[in-house]
Structures are given as C-alpha cells and as structure tokens.
C-alpha cells in the first residue's frame, strides 16, 4: 500500500469516527453546562414568575387596605378632635 493510499484510508476512517466523537463530546459538554447552570440557579434562591406575580398582587391589595385604614384613622382622629373641641 502506497503512502497516499494509506493516508487516504486513514483520512476516511478518521472522517467516519470524528463526527461521532464530536457529537458525543458536544452532548457531554452540553449536559455538564446544563448541570452547572442549574446548580447556580438553585443557589440563587430564585422564585418563579407566577410566584412573583402572586406576591405582587398580594402586596398591591395590602397597600390598598393600608391606605383605606390610614384614611379611616385620619377621619376618626378628626371626629375625636372635633368632639373634644366642642
């Protein structure tokens, strides 16, 4: 077998093996990267969008209630001051 034939055969064999190795390596790197990202996200103690929106609505309603109660207290204080002045 001539050196050119040997090189051609080797090139063909590597050509058939390398794409499989590259795909396998790509999948392995992708899995490791996904695991690393998930680990970081877990450590960040993040909440879901749904939980965030629920808490935002609870906070909005609580703020409304506080505003109503502040107005009511102010009215009661005015009534109390008016009755003590009379």
UniProtKB/TrEMBL annotation:
Principal location listed in the UniProt entry: cytoplasm
Residues forming coiled coils: 52-86
Keyword annotations: Coiled coil, Cytoplasm, Ubiquinone biosynthesis
Highest taxon of source: Bacteria
Gene Ontology CC: cytosol
Alphabetical list of InterPro entries matching this protein: UbiK
Pathway(s) this gene product operates in, as recorded in its UniProt entry: Cofactor biosynthesis; ubiquinone biosynthesis
GO biological process: ubiquinone biosynthetic process
Keyword hit for Coiled coil: yes
Compartment(s): Cytoplasm
Record-linked Pfam families: BMFP
Family: Belongs to the UbiK family.
Protein's job: Required for efficient ubiquinone (coenzyme Q) biosynthesis. UbiK is probably an accessory factor of Ubi enzymes and facilitates ubiquinone biosynthesis by acting as an assembly factor, a targeting factor, or both.
Name by which UniProt lists this protein: Ubiquinone biosynthesis accessory factor UbiK
Species of origin: Thermohahella caldifontis
Lineage, top ranks: Bacteria, Pseudomonadati, Pseudomonadota, Gammaproteobacteria, Oceanospirillales
């Amino acid at each position: 077998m001539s050196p050119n034939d040997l090189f051609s055969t080797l090139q063909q064999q590597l050509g058939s093996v390398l794409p499989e190795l590259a795909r396998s390596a790509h999948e392995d790197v992708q899995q490791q990267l996904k695991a690393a990202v998930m680990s970081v996200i877990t450590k960040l103690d993040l909440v879901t969008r749904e939980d965030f929106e629920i808490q935002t609505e609870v906070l909005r309603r609580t703020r409304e209630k506080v505003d109503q109660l502040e107005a009511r207290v102010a009215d009661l204080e005015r009534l109390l001051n008016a009755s003590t002045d009379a």
